[in-house]
Amino acid sequence: MVEVLANLSRGPVFLAGETIHCDISFHHPGPPSNTGRTESPRENNRVTLAWASVQIICQCTVSESRVLLPRGPLPSTADVSSTGCDTSFVPNKGERGSTVLSTKPKILFCDLTLTAGQTKSFKFEDAIPTDSPPSYRGQAVKYSYKIIIGTQRFQQPTKLLRIPFRVLVLYGLNDLSVYNEPDEVAPSNPFLRPKQKQNTILDIATQVMATVTARKSPHSFNITNSQGRVAKLLLFKQAFKLGDDIVGVFDFKDGTIPCVQYSVTLQSEEQISEECRHKMSQGSAITSYVKHQEMCLHVDETHMSIPIPLTASPGFITDIVCLRWRLHFEFVTLCEPLDPAELMEIGEEFSSWRGPANINVETMIWDLPIKIFPSNPVHVSSVTMMKSANSIKV
Q1: Which of 102, 56, 61 is nearest to 79 (CA)?
Q2: CA 250/CA 304 separation, integer angstroms
Q3: Highest taxon of the source (predicted)?
């Protein structure tokens, strides 16, 4: 028996374009202790593995009632390797859906012999293509990534070890030379080291995400209906990262229509492309995440704060599906003025107001598009439920 252990040291979340580092070890613990023999046979002290290969795949699973895929292979963002179909290493064996991305398999070893108690360790490194689809679990489409480690003992079936991981996509990182400073404009300082370390794709992505989601000039929106002005919304920005808080301020002082209650819901909109829709009349799938609700009658000013979950998927678009984000507002306004307030004196400084038992109201709905970008994958790894290590016995 050989125990195969694989571990993603940094965690199970990566950006498209990053290089995955995986530590893989093969350990032979020795013959079982309950054999009842005083001396184990020589073949029990030595185990030979024929080969071991590693490969990254991305599987796409769709809902047949909502998605009608075109005939032939799925549109792929990377060339799907056919090597696995011609050898005993079939990385997508037993997987659901279709393979839309498959890197070239890398051979760890051929003909490896382990003695009892011996361990052999290997390091696997491979880059995730920058044009890969992101990890996503929607109502109609699912993209899932896995590292597949295949190995085989002589005259025994192939065993596969799977390690799922998550991929975040930040568009615009295809050419890193745009972000790296060229040599001719680099400062010439004799005290600087001659070789400057180039920024990694994670460093560049972090700078880009911080720039596009930085707070700039606030956005002001006047919320009105057919009868007049309801409120004024001040939103400090419309581009956010995973884990950010969406903060806004409502101003009801200058409103001509009293607002009784408002609610704000963070929603994602999953839209299937026209070529892949099962029915041309089918609409988008809406998923709600976080909701903020507040009573605001006789309130001059209030604010909202909606956290964006780190487990959510940033906006993206592929040949099959497009994911967008929005804030869904609902305002409950009065259709007619209230009766004069009935005040009840409580002491000398305080009074209370008793509202009417029934009021005539109407609800106004408004959707505000926003943009959500990825966050640092190291931070996202801290809340993911994925395991960064797995093992099998061969």
Answers
A1: 102
A2: 8
A3: Eukaryota
| Model pLDDT for residues 67-92, shown as the tens digit of each residue | 988 765 555 444 444 444 445 678 88
Percentage of the chain beyond pLDDT 70 is 82
Give residue for tokens 């439920």: 385
pLDDT at 197 (0 to 100): 59
Class of domain 212-373: mainly beta
Indicate the pairing of strand 239-241 with strand 361-373: parallel
* Local structure of 380: helix, strand or coil: helix
First vs last Cα of the chain: how many Å apart? 6
Give the three-class secondary structure for 379.
helix
- The angle at the Cα of 314, spanning 313 to 318, to the nearest 5 degrees, equals 90
Pinpoint the residues of the chain covered by CATH 2.60.40.640.
Answer: 3-169+378-393, 212-373
Give the DSSP per-residue string, 77-131: SSPPP-HHHHSS--TTTT--SEEEEEPPPEEEEEEEEEETT-EEEEEEEEEPPTT
- Measured between alpha carbons, how far is 330 from 393 in angstroms, rounded to an integer? 55
Q: Which are the contacts of 303, defined by CB distance < 8 A and separation ≥ 6?
A: 247, 248, 249, 250
The answer to whether 45 touches 30, Cβ cutoff 8 Å, is yes
Joined together, the tokens standing for residue 129 give: 């293509």
Exposed/middle/buried for residue 12 (C-beta within 10 Å: 0-12, 13-18, 19+)? buried
- Could you tell me which residues come within 8 angstroms of residue 263 by beta carbon, excluding any fewer than 6 positions away? 291, 292, 293, 294, 329, 330
Q: Are 223 and 331 in contact (CB under 8 A)?
A: yes
21-60 confidence digits (pLDDT tens): 999 999 998 776 655 554 455 556 889 999 999 999 999 9
DSSP character string of 29-55 = --S-TTS--SS--HHHHEEEEEEEEEE
Rg value, the chain, Cα: 29
Q: How far apart are the C-alpha atoms of 278 and 280, rounded to whole Å? A: 7
Pick the CATH number of 3-169+378-393 from 2.60.120.600, 2.60.40.640, 1.10.8.60, 3.40.50.1980: 2.60.40.640
